[in-house]
Amino acid sequence: MPKVEFQPVGVTIDVPPGTDLLTAARRAGVAVDSPCGGKGTCGQCLVRVASGQMNFVGGRGLLSEALLAEGYVLACQATVRDEPLTIEIPQQVGYEGGKFADGDETFLVRHELLPREWQYDPLAVKWRLTVSAPQPEDGLGDLDRLTRAIQQEWGPMRVLYSLAVIHTVANTLRAADGVVTVTLIRDGEQLHAIRLESGDTTMRHFGLAADVGTTTVAVQLIDLVRGRVLATRSEYNGQIPCGLDVISRINYAARGDGLAELRCGVLETLNRLIAQLAAAHGVAAHEISNAVISGNTTMMHLMLGLNPEHIRLAPYTPTLLEAPYFSAAEVGLEINPDSWVYLSPCVGSYVGGDITAGLLCTDLAAGREDISLFIDIGTNGEIVLGNNEFLLACACSAGPAFEGGGIDCGMRAALGAIEKVDVDPATGAPRCYTIGNTRPRGICGSGMIDLLANLLLGGWIDSAGKFDRQRPCPAIRVEGKKAWYVLAEASVSATDKDLVIGEQDIENIVRAKAAIYSACALMMEQIGMEFSDLAAVYIAGGFGRFLDLAKATVIGLVPDIDPEKFQYIGNSSLMGSYMVAVSQDYRQRQYELARRMTYFDLSNAPGYMDHYTAALFLPHTDEASFPSVVAAMQADREGAR
Amino acid sequence: MPKVEFQPVGVTIDVPPGTDLLTAARRAGVAVDSPCGGKGTCGQCLVRVASGQMNFVGGRGLLSEALLAEGYVLACQATVRDEPLTIEIPQQVGYEGGKFADGDETFLVRHELLPREWQYDPLAVKWRLTVSAPQPEDGLGDLDRLTRAIQQEWGPMRVLYSLAVIHTVANTLRAADGVVTVTLIRDGEQLHAIRLESGDTTMRHFGLAADVGTTTVAVQLIDLVRGRVLATRSEYNGQIPCGLDVISRINYAARGDGLAELRCGVLETLNRLIAQLAAAHGVAAHEISNAVISGNTTMMHLMLGLNPEHIRLAPYTPTLLEAPYFSAAEVGLEINPDSWVYLSPCVGSYVGGDITAGLLCTDLAAGREDISLFIDIGTNGEIVLGNNEFLLACACSAGPAFEGGGIDCGMRAALGAIEKVDVDPATGAPRCYTIGNTRPRGICGSGMIDLLANLLLGGWIDSAGKFDRQRPCPAIRVEGKKAWYVLAEASVSATDKDLVIGEQDIENIVRAKAAIYSACALMMEQIGMEFSDLAAVYIAGGFGRFLDLAKATVIGLVPDIDPEKFQYIGNSSLMGSYMVAVSQDYRQRQYELARRMTYFDLSNAPGYMDHYTAALFLPHTDEASFPSVVAAMQADREGAR
Predict the structure, then answer these.
(1) Could you tell me where the beta strands, DSSP code E, fall in B303-379?
(2) CATH 3.10.20.880 in chain A, residues?
(3) Fold of B354-398+515-627
(4) Cβ contacts of A34 within 8 Å, gap of 6 or more
(5) Is A337 in CB contact (< 8 Å) with chain B?
């Protein structure tokens, strides 16, 4: 089979002729974005052929002659011939390209809400033991002596072993004079021994936290000894080609092998991210002893291969809300196969574990009497309103716009994404800031919000999201009934194409923000409160490290109240998963949160469509509810004149 | 790939050209004996080619021209060409050919020792439930409602599910208006739900009992509702090509993939027998919810894939003696993958679960003060001496002679085996009785014992096992230094060869009986007792339904005491496994037996070699210890004169 070498990461893989480069890259564990799901339409899987020849499946139409001449191809549209190839992954989409490549976002969460060192207490613990040497005719086998040594430290608990662990016992007990390290899971009055190593390895102990979103999957590698996040990586969910939102995924699951395909899709994404994180930090997959995964109810069902049909059909009853622990082997997670996978508990068919994890990053339910709001902006928007006495949760379908889906040059918050756009008040010209200060590849959610807010404040778009066709602006292009805004010319963009936002894109963004705002407004109505009565508003979402909440107010995504009350907490589903991974106390808190939460079904609420329709303007049909935005718009426009 | 059809069973299989017929038959689940392990030397895998052409690997030398002309070939020596074939399996080795094909041996065990109906209490139980329909917004998923329904019947116990079972929940709960049958395993304060079916299936509930011997594997299918054995099947252990006794298997395990090969060998045998039993009784493999397996310590390690090396090396410490429950999936048993496999507890490296199971078929330890002896005659002979106060166990290597190994025309107790041979006192001519009254294919252990005893009583062999070369006898043939006894001429044998017993064969049988007798004698010496002081002697072994203990005394296999004290109890390891499979009370008894037993290491005992050497005569060097045998020999010989 021909060899394909990926540079600069230096990974080589054998693939059968006819394999497309996107598939080859995924098999090699090399990250290449493809939000369109390999249809050749998004142009984001651009790679360069350094040596060798390719075949083309869908034509080369999307790429300019200049790019083609330099050897660029779309990975999804080029297939391997029966000869070796060398492929260069452009820096910003390569192996190290995840937005969160080497950091964590714990700083976004208020310090006092994070687990402290004395609360570090992961589900799996490592314990050094000395096991006595075998004695002739004492009637004890190796396993008996190991169990006895564990019980000397832990008391007379039942110790359970899988056959895979028992396979290692004879040799491990004899390798270092009986000194062994056992990894144990405490399960009430039982201990599950999930790994046995010779010598003292207690300082190498790793766990995982993961957020499985409809659009984006993010994974953290955790050092369980020090309770620290070692690294985070994210990638589009491999299920995207099967549908953009949960309902289309549920429908896809009903076709032939659809459910199995969806399950594989997300597991491949998770396992690829795990393999990349582990390799980058010198950790072997089987050293990872615990995983906490949070996601919405549909994502959890699909990941487990459970029929999601009844989530969609009345009375909307999923197979499970609180999952038992599963072994990594049964889930299909490529870590220690005997390790336990904990899924954050879900509350209802449309309020999932991402929310019960996310709430841990707020003090919504922790001893506060005044009422706060938690908004998780994702493809499935989820909202919780409450205090220490009640927690009311709902969900709305916002669509994938803020994660880059359905937006011509949209992308997730990764290197090369425009995350901030200044718009010159006088000329309307853009000034883009990209993650990593590279040439722009597209625009992510925070960039879209910033752009729309600035265009609105400057009067370049109206409250319906339509461009001003009268006022001269070099960035606004009009062709017939169509108009669009050029963020970056092809000459400066990393994709060699103009990066543009059209009116259709704006409409998609407005629909997303309207779905979220109107759900919040309806929730407030339910409890007879005004937004201004809220003590705090927590905003979560995969916007990376940056989200300008003042601009989110301008477009009417979040209410127009005292800016001091807002806090952006990043990917709170991922952060909450981390907390649960390092602390059993937090797992218990999460469990209680899930039990306390009441699910409010928006689809049955009579006022929802009115609220939604009213929110389909920038900032809102009811300008009185956005007084500071209206004032700023007027001030800006007057300033520009 | 060419198709091979096996008749009269009517099974067709596709195999690659070059596959030998023995392998093809095994893959098709068609039983063909091959005690020589496929070396082309035993001649027992004889089949007839009804249509098609074959290639031959080892020549056709063993078969007569007459047989070849009729289309007979040795399955192990003939390989498939690239064309279809039809193969006839001779009746006696075909699909229905197991000795125990449709019966059980419970009648061999004293009635009062068997579990009574009120003791039927298998580990896995089936329970019919009605699960309430899903309610809108009651916050309960399908699994919650199922758990609640189980807890309503069983109390507030924790209910555990594997992901595989959870996969079936959504559809099963909705298939029959919430009526479901759950299969539960009780594990202290926990319940493991291992299967969920729609409707009421409580009357279909099956289990397995198995004896894994070094030479022979026997499996029983049990109806757990009625506590009845449905059928038993046995076959040679697929590990035989890797060595004939436990020590050579342990050595084989140390080579390259030896351990994996041994594990596969025995699992293939077990799974083939299970598949045949299940198919013959219309039971699906996943309807089998529980298995009890008994075998010696080495067999259990090899079946589990555990390194057996330290069983052979001082201080002889196995990985495990009392195994925890394993799931069928981790063991590799092809029944319900979530079902639990119970392994009978072992006592030491050389006294295994076959003995703790076997003792359940005796009253050795059950409230008896007088001392009894239990002898399990197998490739690994195991002996227990004791009463309600002590149990002393030892093991000796007898070799596979009594199961047909190392004997020219030896075979296990299956259809066509000579199980009894009368020898005409005047002429020395044999009269053979075969299992199933078919043409003879070979001789099994009980036949060998009968033959040797009759030859000795008639004076046709001397106490050293040598043939009388003076006295004219048409059945005894002498050629140079060699002499042999013709049991059946080629014209009447099913193999178209003379079936003969030579002096080398007799020597192998004498060694086997000497190993067992001398171990018994040494045990008696240890406690300072005579054989005549024993209250009872239980003899177990795979001799099928018949063993003439008077003849066993004649050859000195068992002591010469009051014949009333003997009881032949058949394959007690298998029978004890059955008892444990149907009754948790018996499982507890077995556990206590294992704990009470003391292992006595023969290999360290100073007198063993002397005892063994003295026993290498028929009946024994010390004629005084076999007074009735000596008297009978004299009487018979005088009668013959």
Answers:
(1) 326-327, 340-343, 372-377
(2) 123-198
(3) Nucleotidyltransferase; domain 5 (3.30.420)
(4) A22, A42, A44, A45, A75, A76, A236
(5) no
Interchain CB distance below 8 Å, B318 and A140 = no
- Answer for the pair B25, B75: CB distance below 8 angstroms, yes or no: yes
Domain ranges in chain A with CATH number 3.30.420.40: 361-400+510-628
- At the topology level of CATH, where does A3-93 sit? Ubiquitin-like (UB roll) (3.10.20)
Q: What is the pLDDT of residue A9?
A: 67
Q: Which residues of chain B form CATH 3.10.20.30? A: 3-93
**A164 at the B interface (CB within 8 A)?**
yes
Q: Please report how many Cα atoms fall inside a 13 Å half-sphere around the Cα of residue A474, on the Cβ side.
A: 10
What is the spatial distance between Cα A273 and Cα A296, in angstroms, rounded to a whole number? 19
Interface test with A, best of B320, B349, B356, B600 (most A CBs within 10 A): B320
pLDDT tens-place string over residues B169-180: 999 999 999 999
CATH 3.30.420.480 residue ranges in chain A?
A: 236-353
Mean pLDDT, consecutive 10-residue stretches, chain A (641 aa), reads 80 86 80 69 76 79 68 85 85 36 63 88 96 86 96 96 97 96 95 97 97 94 94 91 90 95 97 93 94 97 97 92 95 97 95 96 86 93 93 92 91 88 93 87 94 95 95 93 94 90 96 96 94 95 83 96 93 96 96 93 86 95 93 79 59
Dig out the tokens for B144 from the structure.
Answer: 């919650």
The pTM (predicted TM-score) of the whole model is 0.82
Q: Which residue of B has its CA nearest to A297?
A: B141
CATH number of A236-353: 3.30.420.480
- For residue A84, CA distances in Å to A28, A35, A49, B544 come to 15, 27, 11, 65
Residues B355-395 pLDDT 10s: 999 999 999 887 778 999 999 998 889 999 999 999 999 99
- Compute how many other C-beta atoms are within 10 angstroms of the C-beta atom of residue B476: 18
Please give the Cα distance from B20 to B37 (Å, whole number): 13
- A330·B162 Cβ contact <8 A: yes
Q: Specify the higher pLDDT residue, B497 or A42.
A: B497
Q: Residues 6 or more apart from B421 whose CB is under 8 A from it?
A: B430, B431, B432, B433, B443, B447, B450, B451, B454, B487
| CATH value of A123-198 in 3.40.50.720, 3.40.190.10, 3.10.20.880, 3.40.50.410 | 3.10.20.880
The pLDDT tens digits of the residues spanning B247-298 come to: 999 999 999 999 999 999 999 999 999 999 999 889 999 999 999 999 999 9
Q: Supply A387's token pair.
A: 């205090």
**Would you identify the CATH topology of the domain B208-351?**
Nucleotidyltransferase; domain 5 (3.30.420)
Amino acid residing at B205: H
Q: Does B284 touch chain A (CB under 8 A)?
A: no
Q: In CATH, what number does A361-400+510-628 get?
A: 3.30.420.40
Q: For residue range A425-474, what is the model confidence (pLDDT) as tens digits? A: 899 999 999 887 888 999 999 999 999 999 999 999 999 999 999 999 99
ipTM of the modeled complex: 0.82
Q: What is the DSSP letter of B410?
A: B
